[in-house]
Design brief:
Number of strands: 13
Structural class: alpha/beta
Distance between the termini: 83 Å
Radius of gyration: 22 Å
Strand order of the largest sheet: 4-5-13-10-11-12
Number of helices: 17
Helix content: 25-40%
CATH architecture of one domain: 3-Layer(aba) Sandwich
Shape: globular
CATH class of one domain: Alpha Beta
Bound molecules: pyridoxal-5'-phosphate
């Protein structure tokens, strides 16, 4: 029977078999063989609009209020989720995060043209908002179309659950978050709690939570929001589009990004692919992924030219959002790195904390994951891959305020196994002018030599 529906402009497609396709309003997470799906766009339809016209459209929408195009994600709606009704979009005007010239830090490490893209300056404090607005909007559209979806759920200890809880709450859709009991910090717990998600603290670890969320999604029709759901990539890829737009469509030499489950680097590359294919940019930047040494399966595979991949048991790292030993999006990430002449570097715990601390002293306020990327950049310089005149964009994935525990411990010299090189604990003194004055002058002299 023929349907009266217009031809879809985007659909799910198996990574292994391009003939295996599903509509975006079908509840499906993997292909028949259990592999990942990706969202594929009708590129011929997009190419009917010229590159110059796309640029003009994107510019005209940025920072305006026309619903939903004022969002950094939905300002690129045709490239993200073209067939969704604007009424079903769930957005808090995420994206449009600042990309700025990190002049002083760049000078200190010998780079003239270093930029930071602060994706953490967003509604829930991490880039996860970019993907979650897309996923929750699609769920709202499916529910509006009559789908029986009782709730959306994820297993997470941090940023994913915060984003899911916020967007689901904005849409009035029940959200369920599975967390490992006693293994997460107050900051990680409070966002889903405050946003009214149903928060389960289970007597297990992250993998145990993942197992439960998969079961409730298979057996009870709860919609799965973990990163095997490829809808999130569509929103996250706008980070690449924004960087291009913010640099007047002239791409940098390098993009450096931290990676755990590796969805975000895949998303970054997917955005660049579309920009190149549709002619909005012509330069192909190189990509570097930074991993914590404690959770480095991609780094180990890179050492062997990606010929073998072995999942590892990730050890504890201050960069808790990338403490992942068996990344879901490994295959997509390897493809992405091959397309963008990619490199993988790693950072020890001490390196992460020291680099965060020295960068923070130039006015930044880095989360540990951003610290991993900054260490990776230093290693690229040491290897001669990044030269002093290269333009580099480091993607900062979360707001430093979400990860204050390790920072505080660093400055109080309480981090196990790490000797803090730049500690700056508060100076406790009696409230006495003379005492304060002497100490003040001594500190100014010590720190600034004046
Ligand atoms: C999720 C997350 C990452 C890792 O992204 P992946 O897609 O899992 O590679 C890095 N930093 C922060 C702050 C995150 O929340």
């Amino acid at each position: 029977m023929s349907t009266s529906k217009p031809r879809p402009r985007a659909w799910f497609e198996s990574l292994r078999d391009p003939t295996e396709r599903y509509p975006l309003d079908e509840v499906v997470y993997t292909d028949r063989s259990g592999g990942l799906l990706q969202v594929v766009h009708d590129m011929d339809a997009l190419a009917e609009t010229s590159a110059e016209e796309w640029k003009r459209i994107f510019e005209s929408r940025a920072h305006r209020n026309e619903w939903p195009y004022g969002s950094g994600v939905w300002g690129k709606k045709e490239w993200v989720l073209p067939d969704i009704d604007n009424d079903n979009v769930v957005s808090m005007y995420e994206g449009h995060t600042n990309l700025f010239w990190a002049e002083r830090y760049g000078r200190e490490i010998g780079l003239e043209d270093l930029w930071l893209k602060l994706c953490g300056n967003s509604h829930t404090g991490s880039f996860k908002d970019l993907g979650m607005t897309v996923l929750v909007s699609q769920v709202k559209q499916m529910i509006a179309g009559g789908a029986k979806i009782p709730a959306v759920a994820c297993a997470s200890t941090g940023d994913t659950s915060a984003a899911l809880a916020a967007y689901a709450a904005a849409a009035g859709i029940p959200a369920i978050v599975f967390l490992p009991r006693g293994k997460i910090s107050m900051a990680q717990l409070i966002q889903p709690v405050a946003n009214g998600a149903i928060v389960f603290a289970l007597d297990t670890d992250f993998d145990g939570c993942m197992d439960i969320v998969k079961q409730v999604s298979e057996k009870d029709g709860v919609y799965l929001a973990n990163s095997m759901n490829s809808l999130r990539i569509e929103g996250q890829k706008t980070v690449g589009l924004e960087i291009a737009q913010q640099l007047d469509w002239a791409m940098p030499d390098w993009l450096v990004i931290p990676g755990g489950n590796l969805g975000n680097v895949s998303a970054l590359a997917k955005g660049l692919d579309m920009l190149l294919e549709l002619g909005l940019i012509s330069k192909r930047p190189r990509i570097c992924v930074g991993q914590a040494e404690a959770a480095n399966p991609l780094y180990l595979a890179y050492q062997k030219d990606f010929e073998v991949f072995e999942p590892i048991a990730a050890r504890t790292t201050v960069a808790s959002a990338i403490q992942i030993g068996n990344p879901v999006s490994y295959d997509k990430a390897v493809d992405a790195l091959r397309r963008y002449d990619g490199v993988v570097e790693q950072a020890t715990e001490a390196e992460i904390m020291e680099e965060c601390a020295s960068a923070d002293r130039t006015g930044l306020f880095n989360c540990p994951h951003t610290g991993v990327a900054l260490v990776a950049l230093r290693k690229l310089q040491e290897r001669g891959l990044v030269r002093s005149s290269d333009r580099v964009v480091v993607i900062s994935t979360a707001h430093g305020l979400k990860f204050v525990d390790s920072k505080l411990a660093y400055h109080q010299m309480e981090l196990e196994g790490i000797v803090s090189r730049h500690p700056n604990p508060p100076i406790e003194l009696a409230a006495d002018y003379g005492v304060v004055r002497d100490e003040m002058l001594r500190e100014i002299e010590r720190r600034f030599g004046r």
